[in-house]
Specification:
single chain, 434 Repressor (Amino-terminal Domain), Jelly Rolls, three-stranded antiparallel sheet
């Protein structure tokens, strides 16, 4: 079991799944049909009898019409000062990658810094994304390819990229080694969760149409 799968053991996915399902007034059978999972498998997850894989969680999220981050949200009072120890980061696994919050999810201001760890071939999905504000990217290790309005930029360790986030963009790791990147989202509209645009149902899938 790798780091991405281990993180799911620390989240009460079952309770959150039931909460999201009930909010949408969806039966277990309806979610099963839309996710192509069995009702028994979903029941086992809801009751905490089994922990879903990242790919299974993505199927459930798609069926519910929510981003995968909905399973990891822990709403808390926003603060003017946020200190975050490395081992206390919010960690959200997705296929072939890991998202780590750096405190923006608890900060009163409109800035959201995050870390992305991407395995070879990981990408943000088939389609580009747009959101309000600005996006700053710093490649810490490996290679990261960003496509912004049709222009491609290959970032290596130390390289950075800054652009207006309303420009259509997407990313991928084109290298054989893992990529580590710092992304800072700023100046977005209040109430928006810009990082969620980076985790569509197709995010993280290797190869094929998801490539930049």
């Amino acid at each position: 079991m790798d780091l991405m799968e281990k993180d799911l053991r620390w989240i009460d996915v079952g309770s959150r799944l039931r909460e999201l399902r009930m909010e949408r007034r969806m039966s277990m059978r309806a979610v099963a049909r839309l996710s192509s999972l069995s009702t028994n498998a979903l029941s086992m997850i809801e009751r905490g009898r089994t922990s879903p894989s990242v790919s299974t969680l993505y199927k459930v999220a798609t069926a519910l019409g929510v981003p995968i981050t909905a399973f990891f949200r822990q709403e808390s009072q926003r603060q003017e000062i946020v200190f975050r120890k490395a081992h206390r980061r919010t960690r959200i696994p997705f296929p072939r990658g890991l998202w780590e919050g750096l405190g923006g999810e608890e900060f009163v201001g409109v800035v959201e810094p995050l870390m992305l760890t991407l395995e070879s071939g990981a990408n943000s999905g088939k389609f580009g994304m747009v959101h309000t504000g600005h996006e700053f990217v710093l490649c810490l290790s490996g290679k990261l390819e960003y496509e912004v309005e049709g222009q491609r930029f290959t970032l290596e360790a130390g390289d950075s990229l800054l652009f207006a986030a309303q420009l259509q963009h997407r990313w991928r790791n084109p290298d054989r080694d893992n990529t580590l990147a710092l992304i800072v989202l700023t100046s977005f509209e209040g109430g928006e969760r810009p990082s969620e645009f980076h985790f569509t149902s197709g995010a993280g899938q290797a190869g094929g149409e998801g490539d930049c």
